[in-house]
Automatic annotation (TrEMBL):
The lineage of its organism: Bacteria, Pseudomonadati, Pseudomonadota, Alphaproteobacteria, Hyphomicrobiales. It holds the Pfam family DUF3422. Keywords: Membrane, Transmembrane, Transmembrane helix. It comes from Rhizobium laguerreae. The chain crosses the membrane at residues 364-385, 397-416. This is Membrane-anchored protein.
Length: 426
């Protein structure tokens, strides 16, 4: 949990371009905040018979803006209000003149405790009352029946310095009752022991807030499992060219799984954190067995840990489903990518074939071009020869015979040189 020291800690920002050194005042502020964290949330110390009521609320808007604690004392009544990350607690100690014969009647209702916490119609998390009495009696069962306790879990705690009893039943006023017999605890140890018991009950209730979410998700996860199997089988039989509909269905399933994970990640994470605190607080009780009774911590763990494991299993199942869906999506995308690459390769091969055909046609055209150019040049020479002959200039006919190979050779050499020049430029 984040307490007032951690929430109010001051962290100076450091520029990436020009590192800064914290000023002495800032360093002293940080040290003061960290040191105050060591002394945050002290217990209410008291002695003698007393009734201690502890109520935890969650704000309806889920936001706690202030993390300071407050303590008020008026005669034999002390009230401490503590603000945690998700909830606010009110602890009220009312000293008794003598040990009562029955359970003392409360003089405050839940609305009164909510007003003490500064909240308006909040959500009740837990309401626990501890009756602190003297030495444990010899006939414990008789005393517990007088206090209207049912099947009770009892432990000797604090190395035998006290004894805690609870039936873990919630009464009509939404409260549960615990009896603490003080054998050898001074005011400080008694206050700390009462605080540990309250923390066990509060954090246990906070941890169990994840259980309804796990139960709500159970049928949905079953449907997601079946859908994932169906889509996986379809991926094996669906042709690559019909992948679009399958891809859309896998994407929808992945979206549902990611949405469920995002909705419950914080709750399941808090459940794991609260469960760890409960285990630590139970260990701090230093329980020993009381003959004829089940241990307090054993009763809590046997009924509390399965619920926590249910939340852990649901979170793990969500994570595995998300990974499996993403893996299936990757497989389908890989399949689609391979198909696209195969189509691209086929298109490239077709283009290469067409290019080879064009090269062949071009070479054939080049041959015809040589013949055509040679023919036109020879026709031009023949025209010049005949015109000169009519004009009275007579040339030897051998000149035309010699001109044929010369013209053809010149054309071939010229075309080859042009092709070579174009190839060099490319």
């Amino acid at each position: 949990m984040i307490s007032k020291g951690a929430e109010g800690a001051f962290f100076p920002t450091v520029s990436a371009s020009a590192p800064q050194v914290s000023s002495p005042a800032a360093f002293e502020q940080k040290a003061a905040d960290f040191n105050s964290e060591l002394h945050a949330r002290p217990s209410i110390y008291f002695t003698g018979p007393a009734i201690v009521e502890h109520v935890a609320f969650m704000p309806l808007d889920g936001a706690i803006k202030e993390f300071h604690d407050s303590l008020k004392a008026d005669g034999g009544i002390s009230v401490r209000v503590e603000r945690h990350t998700e909830f606010v607690t009110v602890t009220r100690v009312r000293k008794l003149a003598s040990e009562p014969e029955g359970w003392p009647e409360t003089d405050l209702c839940e609305d009164d405790f909510a007003r003490l916490a500064g909240l308006s119609s909040p959500l009740l998390v837990c309401h626990v009352s501890i009756l602190v009495l003297g030495n444990p009696p010899d006939q414990l069962g008789t005393v517990l029946k007088t206090l209207d306790f049912g099947d009770t879990a009892t432990s000797s705690i604090g190395g035998g310095a006290a004894q805690v009893c609870s039936d873990f039943r919630v009464r009509e006023d939404n409260s549960s009752r615990i009896v603490l017999f003080n054998k050898d605890l001074n005011a400080h140890r008694l206050g700390r022991m009462v605080r540990r018991i309250f923390e066990i009950e509060t954090y246990r209730s906070m941890a169990l807030l994840g259980l309804p979410e796990a139960r709500r998700l159970a049928p949905l996860l079953g449907g997601y499992d079946a859908e994932l199997v169906r889509l996986t089988n379809r991926n094996l039989s669906t042709p690559a060219h019909q992948h679009k509909q399958l891809l859309e269905e896998i994407t929808v399933l992945s979206s549902h799984i990611i949405s469920a994970t995002a909705e419950t990640r914080n709750r399941f994470g808090a459940t794991a954190a609260y469960a760890k605190i409960v285990e630590e607080r139970i260990a701090l009780l230093r329980e020993t067995h009381v003959p004829g009774f089940q241990r307090f911590g054993t009763f809590v763990e046997r009924r509390f840990k399965p619920a926590v494991r249910t939340c852990e299993a649901t979170a793990l199942r969500l994570e595995h489903l998300s990974r499996a869906a993403m893996h299936l999506l990757d497989l389908l995308q890989t399949r689609i990518q391979v198909e696209i690459e195969f189509q691209n390769a086929a298109q490239i091969q077709a283009m290469a074939d067409r290019a080879a055909t064009q090269v062949k046609i071009q070479r054939a055209v080049e041959g015809f071009s040589m013949i055509a150019i040679s023919y036109y040049l020879l026709s031009l020479l023949k025209f010049i020869y005949e015109t000169a002959d009519h004009a009275g200039f007579h040339f030897d006919p051998m000149i035309m015979l010699v001109a044929v190979p010369v013209v053809v050779g010149s054309v071939v050499i010229t075309i080859l040189r042009v092709k070579h020049a174009l190839k060099t430029e490319s």
